[in-house]
Automatic annotation (TrEMBL):
Gene: Lhfpl2
GO cellular component: membrane
Its membrane topology: Multi-pass membrane protein
Origin species: Aramus guarauna
UniProt keyword list: Membrane, Transmembrane, Transmembrane helix
Superkingdom to which the source organism belongs: Eukaryota
Protein localization: Membrane
InterPro entries, alphabetized: LHFPL
Name this polypeptide is given: LHPL2 protein
Pfam family, one: L_HMGIC_fpl
Keyword NADP among record annotations: no
Membrane-crossing segments per the record: 12-35, 96-124
Length: 145
């Protein structure tokens, strides 16, 4: 019975480790760190398909990406374009955001390494009399700081 509980716990821990690593990666890539005020809608912002006005547009900014509204030539319809505004590290918005990028990238790398190692804990639970769970848990705590 004890072996089944340990196996279920390690499977749950492995699954959650993978989910958290991907969630951190998605948060890093997101352009929704700062969300601007809604832009007032113009008469041009009418949706031609429904005849109603579109949702108000909120410009967004992330660590190195942003979303802006651009106008297309066809029928004055506007669309949102998301992508990087920083082509190199020195173009990131501020020193604080550069530090955030460094620390988040290091944390994500640690979390991905732990998620990778946690898959192997299903078969091997200790190396050189050290519990892999304890070491990986410590690394996850460091990555979460």
């Amino acid at each position: 019975m004890c072996h089944v509980i340990v196996t279920c716990r390690s499977m749950l821990w492995t699954l959650l480790s993978i989910v958290v690593a991907f969630a951190e990666l998605i948060a890093f890539m997101s352009a929704d760190w700062l969300i601007g005020k809604a832009k007032p809608s113009n008469s041009e912002d009418v949706d031609n398909r429904t005849g109603g006005s579109q949702e108000p547009y909120h410009p967004t900014l992330g660590i190195y990406g942003r979303c802006t509204k651009i106008s297309h030539m066809q029928l004055s319809r506007r669309d949102t374009l998301c992508g990087p505004y920083a082509e190199n590290f020195s173009e990131i918005a501020s020193g604080f955001w550069q530090a955030t990028a460094i620390f988040l990238a290091m944390g994500i790398m640690i979390l991905c390494a732990v998620a990778f190692v946690s898959v192997f804990t299903m078969c091997v639970q200790s190396i050189m009399k050290k519990s892999i769970f304890n070491v990986c848990g410590l690394l996850q705590g460091i990555a979460g700081m």
